Amino acid sequence: MKACVATGELGEIECRDVAEPALEPRTLKLKTRCALICGSDIEYLQGLHGDIVKDEIRGHEFVAEVVEVGEGVRDWEVGDRAVPISYTSNYGCWADYFVCPPVGVQKVPEQVADEDAVFVEPLHTGFGAAEACDLKPGEAVCVVGAGKIGLLAIMSAKLMGASPIIAVDVEQKRLDKALELGADAAFNANEVDVVEEVKALTPSAIGHPAGYGPEAIILCVRQGAVLNQAIEMGMQGARIILAGFIPKTEIDPEQLVLKQLTLSGVLAGRFGENRNNGARALKILANKQMQPQELISETMHYPDIKEAIDSTMKGENLAVLLRP
User: Residues spanned by CATH 3.40.50.720 within the chain?
Assistant: First the structure.
């Protein structure tokens, strides 16, 4: 079978023929229908998450079809479509076939297209980040980083009634897409003072300078400087949610106290909500409340994996749909 395999060298991955995995008891054998590229997969290939394992097959955002059901597995049949649900950081789905226990997947309703269902895993985090903000209708939220996760957070915040929704990025194409998907304003951090512009859009609700700024800020980037911007930007009592792997950075904890800020991280949602968010993400798609396939910028195939990753890293592509 064909698979996208890490060579063990920094930044290198290739499509090659590998042995087809065997079905085991209490597992499902799945045939990949389509997949996406996660930023964490790119970081893995850059060596940012430890050693690169030679010959490892990557990928954890997918739609797959059940082709064999292992002994002891219930409630799954050949032909069922499956998407992930907060189980592992690597399913090895960038391949024609892979094997997974049923606890790691959920069934795709008939009315959900593959091109939407493939976003269920990143929607775990995008929706989970917005949900962790405890947004109420009419509350302002600023989403820093308008990549795949940030855009899904914007779409989720729109569902929750947040207003205004403000997007911040350094790529104009991403900002344009944010406006298209529901953001009320978008600022290029290379061109304006983001803190000043965001505060100007979110006047005080309490008649005091401390009240200026959004009630919630979602950070979907991996740059430490944005954390200090968020602390400065947020209103008194603001909630700051980290949805990206921000590296070690220096902050002034006194500001958290003086402004009574809440700072927390999400990993597919708040602790204890991971799998719930996965189920809710699929329900949102089934109810046609969101169509994330609008994020797909290009379709490529396994032999194009290196180009797909490189174009994503360069900002040329937002979400590449990978097909076998």
Answer: 125-265
